[in-house]
Design goal:
2 copies of one chain form a homodimer.
Chain A (H helix, E strand, L loop, with lengths): L2 H11 L3 E5 L8 H4 L4 H13 L5 E5 H5 L2 H14 L5 E8 L3 H14 L4 E4 L5 H8 L5 E7 L12 E5 L2 E3 L2 E3 L2 E5 H12 L5 E5 L7 H7 L5 E3 L9 H8 L6 E5 L1 H4 L7 H23 L1
Parallel strand pairs in A: 1-2, 1-12, 2-3, 3-4, 4-5, 5-10, 10-11, 11-12
Antiparallel strand pairs in A: 6-9, 7-8
């Protein structure tokens, strides 16, 4: 899916909601548990019920891998079930040396039909670039995440002296910033606004305006609304740009809205509330 | 596998070689390709041929995921085939917020019987700790990797001021170091020498003595020997400790030693050369 197609979907439907399919077999409602393919059945019903309220689905690969082969099968059926009007995210946090990242890119972009994959930046350029080599596919790089551990490394003060030639003289200007700022700056040399997004956690709302300044036109994938406590209003006020520029994800708050037989209706109701709020923020942009 | 058991295996067999099963279906010898389960067949023969020369096998998950369901199946058959005398590594570079990392730990330690998994540190403490909660299982955290991209972030100069009370007075001493040094220091508060190792790339041989000083007793998993150009002698001289403390991995140099029907014998020959050299370094420790 191209950027133009994604933006068109967002403004046509008036929503930038992403529904996170972090499907845990232990949390599936009782009446579905005995189903031979319970995880897929659950996802299918959630997708059917929420399609009109969202523009994207994020599949958290960990929950499927934890079920072994059966889980990988449910993941594959799920991504193939999502209509191509909706942007699909493999939330996989992959990243390894170049020849290995090439294999991960194959896994999500060739063996599976995902539009995008989340990637961890620690290992640098050659661990990220293989994902960027696919026409119409997206890399969503971890920037500043929503979890408490974001403080451990992502927010460290960093610096680097770079030898450059200015008017024939070698100088060593110092580049400074938080680690995640280095990631934002470096990655914009590797990818473009048309194939690179950043993960920015909703719980970082205080810093959203500054983070937006680091990448004014890129899309941000924002997890952490709902169960993790981030505010949709704060994020939207600080980080929407002219082409929206946000995909806001809620997982548990939507898919586990009810434990009963009405789980899909309740999921739709919560997704609908988010979408209703988003519509007003999008209209304010005009 | 406990630390004592691993150390016993190393000294009993006189080797700290890890064989990396980065099995790419396109590189499997012709005569095996038509086999219905070619990847597993290839791995099985490599394992049978190299068992006596190594103490560990590292399965690079990317190569299996790239094959979809069939790949995940080959991965599972392979890890179950490795005898429990040998340490098994899921080279998966996982890491996500706490509740998601818990699912990844389940994937590799419960759904699959791996002894260890490689983990990316970017997201901090709560992304790493779930892996450390399993008795007899190991977390192998990325420290300083072997790829060119290691320079982008891992080698940044970092600092953090921490507010602490000294004799009733608030002071803010500054902790400084490269990013990977922060990772080494922080992680040693999360795990112990009995459940935490670090990845240190063989191509970083110049820095090995300093890196060893950061974690004198921890095991290091050292990829990058062979195809990536790292020197076994340099690494061993600088980083062996009294209990060995090293698992040195070679993947392509061993498993693709020959493209012919003799691939397993050739793999054994190369593995045997590494093991022969390692034996002399281990004997020099006594």
């Amino acid at each position: 899916m191209t950027r133009a197609q994604l933006v068109e979907q967002i403004f046509q439907k008036g929503t930038y909601l992403c529904v996170g399919l972090d499907t845990d077999p232990e949390k599936i409602p009782d009446h579905l548990r005995s189903h031979p393919d319970a995880v897929f059945e659950f996802n299918k019903r959630i997708i059917d019920a929420t399609l009109e309220h969202c523009v994207a689905y994020k599949i958290n690969t960990a929950f499927y891998e934890a079920q072994g082969l059966k889980g990988w099968e449910a993941l594959e059926r799920t991504v193939r079930y999502i209509p191509d009007t909706h942007f699909t995210i493999a939330d996989a946090k992959r990243g390894d040396i170049g020849n290995t990242s090439t294999q991960y890119a194959k896994a999500f972009f060739e063996a599976l039909p995902f539009n995008s994959v989340t990637v961890a930046p620690y290992m640098g350029a050659d661990s990220v670039k293989p994902f960027l080599g696919y026409e119409g596919k997206w890399t969503i790089l971890l920037g500043l995440t929503s979890n408490p551990g974001a403080r451990d490394f992502e927010l460290l003060d960093c610096s680097r002296s770079t030898d450059i030639l200015v008017d024939g003289v070698h100088t060593a200007p110092k580049e400074t910033g938080k680690l995640f700022e280095f990631v934002f700056r470096a990655a914009q040399h590797w990818g473009s606004e048309g194939n690179l997004m950043f993960v920015v956690g909703a719980t970082q709302a205080d810093a959203f305006r500054q983070i937006r300044a680091l990448a004014p036109n890129h899309f941000f994938l924002v997890p952490g609304v709902g169960a993790q406590g981030g505010s949709l209003r704060d994020i939207s006020e600080q980080a929407l740009n002219a082409e929206c520029g946000l995909l806001v994800n809620a997982s548990r708050a939507i898919i586990y809205a009810s434990e009963g037989e009405d789980f899909a209706e309740e999921a739709a109701a919560i997704a609908g509330q988010y979408a209703f709020e988003m519509k007003s923020y999008l209209e304010a942009l005009k």
